[in-house]
Design a protein that fits this description.
12 helices, mainly alpha, about 250 residues, Vanadium-containing Chloroperoxidase, domain 1
Length: about 250
C-alpha cells in the first residue's frame, strides 16, 4: 500500500469515527469546530512530500489525530483573536526576544534542549540518533495536518504582521516547532521527572518564539502541543521506541 493511499485511508477512518451531528447546520460547522473531521488534502502531495511523511517509530496509517482540533475559520472570533495576539506581541517584543527566536529557526534536540540537556555535552551519538528518529515522526504528523488544514502564515494573511524572523515558507497549522519541542520535552520529563517543569517550560518558550516572531498564530502552537501529546501516547505503545528510550537512561548525567 502506498503512503499516499495510507494517508487517504487515515482521513476516511477519522471521518467514520466522528459522532453524528444533530442539527441542519452541522456540515458548515464541521470545518471549524474542535470535533471536526479531518478533510482530505485538496491535491495529491508531491513525491518528495510523501517521502518526507514517513516517520520512524510511527505510521500515520490508523493514527487517531482527532485530539488536534480544526484550525479556526478565517474571520471567526478565534481567528481574529489569533491575529490580535500576534500583533500585540509585535508591539512589545524586544530585540533580545527576536534574537532568541531567530536562534531556534531550525528544529532539533540540540537547538531546543542542548543548553539544559540531562545528557553529557555534546550529546552522545545514541541520543542524537534517538531524537532524530522521534523528530521524523513529529515532522510526518505535522506535515500531514498542515496539508489538511492549509492555514496560511499570519504575515501572509494580514499585511499588518511584520515578522522579526525570516518569512518562512509553508503552512501554519499546526506549528511543527511547537510539536517537536513539546514532544522532546515529554520524553526528557520521562527520563528525568524531577526536571519535568523545566523541560516543559522550555518547550513553551520555543512555541512562544514562533508567535512573537510573527510566523505562527497562537492556535497553531496550541495545536502543535496537542499533537505532541497524541504522538507521545502512541510512541509509548511502540516496543522499539520503549526499548530505545530505556537504552538512554544509562547515558543520563
Amino acid at each position: 500500500m502506498t503512503k499516499l493511499l495510507r494517508r487517504f485511508l487515515l482521513t476516511l477512518s477519522l471521518a467514520a469515527l466522528l459522532p453524528v451531528c444533530g442539527h441542519s447546520g452541522a456540515l458548515e460547522d464541521l470545518g471549524f469546530r474542535p470535533s471536526a473531521v479531518l478533510p482530505a488534502p485538496s491535491a495529491p502531495p508531491a513525491l518528495a512530500d510523501r517521502a518526507a511523511a514517513a516517520g520512524h517509530y510511527l505510521s500515520l496509517d490508523g493514527l487517531d489525530l482527532r485530539a488536534v482540533p480544526a484550525a479556526p475559520a478565517d474571520g471567526s472570533y478565534e481567528d481574529r483573536e489569533d491575529l490580535r495576539i500576534v500583533l500585540d506581541w509585535q508591539a512589545r517584543r524586544t530585540q533580545a526576544q527576536c534574537a532568541a527566536a531567530k536562534a531556534e529557526m531550525s528544529h532539533s534536540y540540540e537547538i531546543f534542549f542542548g543548553k539544559i540537556s540531562p545528557f553529557g555535552s555534546p550529546a552522545p551519538v545514541e541520543v542524537k540518533e534517538f531524537f532524530k528518529h522521534v523528530g521524523e515522526d513529529s515532522v510526518a504528523a505535522h506535515k500531514f495536518l498542515k496539508d489538511v488544514y492549509k492555514r496560511e502564515r499570519p504575515f501572509v494573511r494580514d499585511a499588518r504582521v511584520k515578522p522579526c524572523l525570516p518569512r518562512v515558507q509553508g503552512l501554519s497549522y499546526p506549528s511543527g516547532h511547537s510539536a517537536m519541542a513539546r514532544l522532546f520535552a515529554l520524553i526528557l520529563a520521562d527520563l528525568a521527572p524531577e526536571r519535568r517543569a523545566e523541560f516543559l517550560a522550555k518547550a513553551d518558550e520555543s512555541a512562544l518564539f514562533r508567535v512573537l516572531g510573527g510566523v505562527h498564530h497562537p492556535a497553531d502552537t496550541a495545536a502543535g502541543k496537542l499533537l505532541a501529546d497524541t504522538l507521545y501516547k502512541n510512541l509509548l505503545k511502540q516496543p522499539e521506541f520503549v526499548s530505545d528510550l530505556k537504552a538512554l537512561r544509562p547515558l543520563l548525567r
